[in-house]
From TrEMBL:
Entry keyword Cell membrane: no
Keywords, sorted A to Z: Plasmid
MF terms in GO: hydrolase activity
PANTHER family attached to this UniProt entry: BIS(5'-ADENOSYL)-TRIPHOSPHATASE, ECTONUCLEOTIDE PYROPHOSPHATASE/PHOSPHODIESTERASE
Protein name in the entry: Alkaline phosphatase-like protein
Signal peptide start-end: none
Gene3D superfamilies per the UniProt record, alphabetical: Alkaline Phosphatase, subunit A
Natural source organism: Rhizobium gallicum
InterPro entries assigned: Alkaline_phosphatase_core_sf, Phosphodiest/P_Trfase
């Protein structure tokens, strides 16, 4: 197959079960699935949360190699937000850029601006706690729009000024919808322009936020996925009108799935004084030695949490970080304001979450790859490590550097 241009759209938190059960709500995703290569169940990274999921898409290796073992990773003895600097291997954007391809990142996390010709930051990174702010108070590197040739001139983009925590859910809902609309509109502008990039990577986030806030398969969640589908349709229509539908392969995937929960375990009250990071229904705890690990394990077992293996952790962290999974319908969260300090369980902040016990179907994610000359087929399942070599194959890049094989070709 000849080298093709590629549009990669990551839709946050859409599970394989959701696509399977609600195809009638999603005309554009269904169109691509019917005319392309559909993986019914692409397995999630471990843990099945946002940053490990994104890193697996971009690198084709597990967290033990790419280093992003959670939304928060270890830095300076504490759990800190995962950023580009924590990705230890080249991303598909890096490989494409090194090969001389024109790369655009429009709102996707974990891509280094240096690997792009056009870079628009993820809108959610402007929130507190996601991005390190330089000591002089200047705009962080990862929040700067890069467009040296003004290819997005006149296109409205999300604001990337650092914001304080928003005060209410309504403003978060509205802002997320607007940000996704602006992000994908900028993507459509590029692929329909006189200089369509060879690789465009973007993401849609409203789906994850709506499921967290309103629940899996809630009416609001249905709306959010339909909204994401309409944004995919915007890109499809742009390619049709510009005569480039045959030029681009469109790859759609998600970073993890979603599932409803009813109870939260509050680690602060179970293992007081310990440093920990919640990854939905997965928990990372910093431990000092074997005895400390045993005590933490015993305390968490009393609330139904089970220890998990360390295969997803970089080798150098396996003695320092212990991993646990919550029982079904549970997650790990911070203590809510006013919660009794003698009650280790609480009402969850989120109605739906992810990052469950590895292998649970709720975390299986979508994967659709559609374009001229590509196989039209259905695969029942595939590991996440097969996506990046498939993207490389489409772009005409070497695939031998990946430990796993492409889905086709």
């Amino acid at each position: 197959m000849k080298r093709r241009k590629l549009l990669l759209i990551m839709i946050d938190g859409v599970s394989s079960d959701y696509l399977e059960n609600h195809r009638e709500r999603l005309p554009n995703l269904s169109f691509l699935a019917d005319r392309g290569y559909l993986v019914r169940r692409m397995r999630s990274a471990v843990p099945g949360t946002s940053m490990p999921g994104r890193a697996s898409i971009l690198t084709g290796v597990g967290a033990d190699r790419h280093g992003v073992f959670g939304n928060r990773v270890l830095g300076g003895g504490a759990f800190i937000a995962a950023e580009v600097e924590h990705v230890l291997v080249p991303t598909i954007a890096t490989l494409a850029s090194r090969a001389g391809l024109d790369v655009a990142c429009i709102g996707h996390a974990l891509i280094d601006p240096e690997d792009t010709s056009v870079y628009v930051p993820p809108s959610w990174m402007r929130g507190p706690g996601f991005t390190k702010v330089p000591s002089d108070g200047s705009m962080p590197y990862l929040l700067r729009v890069k467009d040296p040739r003004s290819r997005l001139a006149g296109v409205p983009l999300p604001s990337f000024v650092q914001e304080p925590a928003r005060l209410d859910n309504l403003s978060r809902v509205t802002t997320t919808l607007i940000d996704d609309q602006l992000t994908v509109s900028a993507t459509a502008k590029l692929i329909g322009s006189q200089e369509p990039p060879d690789l465009v990577v973007t993401e849609i986030n409203v789906t994850d936020m709506f499921q967290h806030e309103f629940g899996y398969e809630s009416e609001e969640a249905h709306f959010s996925v339909a909204f994401a589908d309409s944004l995919v349709g915007l890109c499809l229509e742009t390619l049709r009108r510009s005569g480039r539908l045959e030029d681009y392969v469109i790859a759609i995937t998600s970073d993890h799935g979603h599932g409803n929960i009813n109870t939260s375990i509050l680690p602060e009250l179970v293992i007081p004084g310990k440093r920990w990071s919640s990854e939905g229904a997965t928990l990372h705890v910093l431990v000092e030695n074997a005895a400390d690990r045993a005590e933490v394990t015993q305390r968490l077992a009393a609330v139904g949490a089970e220890p998990w293996n360390d295969a997803h952790l970089p080798i150098g962290l396996r003695e320092r970080v212990a991993t646990f999974v919550a029982p079904p319908q549970h997650d790990f969260e911070e203590v809510p304001a006013g919660h009794p300090l003698d009650q280790p369980f609480g009402r969850p902040k989120y109605k739906s979450t992810h990052g469950f016990r590895p292998g649970m179907s709720a975390d299986d994610r979508i994967c659709i790859i559609s374009g001229a000359d590509l196989p039209i087929a259905v695969a029942e399942g595939a590991e996440a490590t097969r996506l990046a070599p498939t993207l490389a194959f489409i772009l005409g890049l070497p695939t031998e550097i990946f430990p796993d094989r492409p889905l086709f070709g």
